[in-house]
Amino acid sequence: MNRFLKNNEENPEQDEEPQLKVDKKVKNPENGKTFFKKLLTEGVVTKEAATEMLPFLLFISFLCMLYIANSHMAVKNIRDIDKLSKEVKELSWEYKSLKADLMFKSKLTEVAKKVDTLGIKVLTEPPKKIIVSYDEY
Prior knowledge:
The protein has about 140 residues and is mainly alpha-helical. Helices cover about 65% and strands about 0% of the residues. The longest helix has about 60 residues, at about 45-105.
């Protein structure tokens, strides 16, 4: 058998352990509820608190709408800038090609080919200088 049990039967005085004194706090009925029970029974926000916070919530929602509208406007402006920069590049290329065509068509040989159908010929001798004195005028 258990020898501790035998010792315990022989000495009943040693059997008793000293009692610890513990102050038991009186429990408040609200302290007894856990957070989750409060959350499920009372809800997160009471009606009174919600009505007090209503102007602030409306202000926050207005700021959120402004933020969203501002981001949409910024994206639209970026798209417009990209579109206009592409258009500027196209117009620049068109300008350069038209300028090159004009330079080619303004050469003496090209002009001579165009006016030959009108009966105008290219000069073979240099032009003569006309001098007018002040007396003649």
